[in-house]
Amino acid sequence: QVQLVETGGGLVQAGGSLRLSCAAIGRTFSGHTMAWFRQAPGKEGEFVGAITGGGNTRYSDSVKGRFTISRDNAKNSVYLQMNSLKPEDTAVYYCAANRYFTTTNNYDYRGQGTQVTVSS
Fold first, then answer.
1. What is the DSSP annotation of the chain?
2. Which is nearest to 70 in space by CA: 59, 85, 60?
3. Which of 3, 4, 1, 2 is nearest to 78 (CA)?
4. CA 20 to 30 Å from 120, out of 18, 30, 75, 79?
5. What is the pLDDT of residues 9-44, one digit of tens each?
């Protein structure tokens, strides 16, 4: 069974940092695009950023310059380093894997999510 398991969420003060991890279980995704999405209460899911199989990264304008995505194919994992966090970053963050890059929230695989709460 293929799973994406996110860890690293929590409560942090505005201006702080968190690092989310996503581990793939059951298959390798070294050639896939790995992305992070987030969903706040009452809002649609939002693209945060992605890293392609070739290592190219893309970010939403709302996180550009503050968030960094990286991957370690040897560990079958992807990471989201979040700095200068703002209360509006509060959401459930999901890891996702897809055969190609897209900002649309319909990836082939998606994890259960991890809660990030930023207090003001």
1. --EEEEE--EEEETT--EEEEEEEESS--TTSEEEEEEE-TTS--EEEEEE-TTS-EEE-TTTTTTEEEEEEGGGTEEEEEE-S--GGG-EEEEEEEESS--SSS--SEE---EEEEEE-
2. 59
3. 4
4. 79
5. 999 999 999 999 999 999 999 999 999 999 999 999
